[in-house]
């Protein structure tokens, strides 16, 4: 398989290729794998220093907004039908699923993307918000309408069905609050941005 960037071993889009994707907007130092799938790119905004790894799916829906210094791990899926906001320094470990929209499988609605909304009365759609320094552990799933507070996060294989308090870690299915996170990352962020000349 030929290298799309033409610079050896990179599997990320070149700047020229990025500009042809049709994204709503994007900043500098953006790395998107050429193995990622992007639907409705005109509804997707990316900040600077964003990395999106192999086999990730981004479905723009009604809008996906990703801030600065965000990493989205391989095999993750973001369904933006209800909207997704990821603030600076938030992120997803590999194989996470962000469902800002979902069908009802209890028999009250027809299901699937080929069915018009009027036949899906129990369909749910609501924005998911990741505040700064929040994130999901490997293979976690977050459902519509949930907000991860600043600095909150989940362990691996966690199902997030409700809002998460700032600076708390959650695990399990359903989620349980387990430990308070250190805020030392705020000090490190300041040092990092100062070194980059961003502040």
Write the layout of secondary structure elements.
Blueprint: H1 15-19, E1 25-26, E2 31-32, E3 37-39, E4 44-46, E5 50-52, E6 57-59, E7 64-66, E8 70-72, E9 77-79, E10 84-86, E11 91-92, E12 97-99, E13 101-102, E14 124-125, E15 128-130, E16 135-136, E17 141-142, E18 147-148, E19 153-154, E20 159-160, E21 168-171, E22 176-180, H2 184-196
Parallel strand pairs: 1-4, 2-5, 3-6, 4-7, 5-8, 6-9, 7-10, 8-11, 9-12, 10-15, 11-16, 12-17, 15-18, 17-20, 19-21
Antiparallel strand pairs: 13-14, 21-22
Task: Throw out a few tags for this protein.
UDP N-Acetylglucosamine Acyltransferase, domain 1, 6-stranded parallel β-sheet, globular
If you had to describe this structure to a student in words, what would you say it looks like?
The protein is mostly beta strands. Helix content is 9%, strand content 30%. It has one domain: Hexapeptide repeat proteins (UDP N-Acetylglucosamine Acyltransferase, domain 1), CATH 2.160.10. It has a six-stranded parallel sheet, with no helix packed on it. It is globular.
């Amino acid at each position: 398989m030929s290298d799309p960037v033409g610079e050896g071993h990179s599997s990320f889009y070149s700047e020229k290729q990025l500009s042809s994707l049709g994204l709503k907007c994007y900043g500098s130092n953006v790395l998107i794998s050429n193995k990622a799938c992007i639907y409705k790119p005109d509804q997707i905004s990316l900040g600077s220093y964003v990395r999106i790894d192999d086999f990730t799916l981004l479905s723009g829906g009604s809008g996906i907004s990703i801030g600065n210094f965000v990493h989205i791990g391989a095999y993750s899926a973001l369904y933006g039908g209800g909207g997704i906001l990821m603030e600076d320094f938030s992120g997803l470990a590999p194989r996470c699923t962000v469902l800002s929209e979902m069908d009802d499988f209890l028999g009250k609605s027809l299901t699937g993307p080929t069915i018009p909304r009027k036949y899906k009365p129990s369909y749910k759609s609501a924005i998911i918000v990741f505040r700064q320094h929040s994130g999901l552990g490997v293979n976690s799933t977050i459902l519509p309408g949930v907000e991860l507070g600043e600095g909150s996060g989940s362990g691996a294989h966690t199902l997030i069905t409700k809002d998460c308090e700032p600076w708390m870690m959650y695990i399990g299915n359903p989620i349980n609050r387990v430990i308070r996170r250190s805020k030392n990352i705020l000090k490190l962020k300041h040092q990092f941005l100062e070194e980059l000349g961003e502040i």
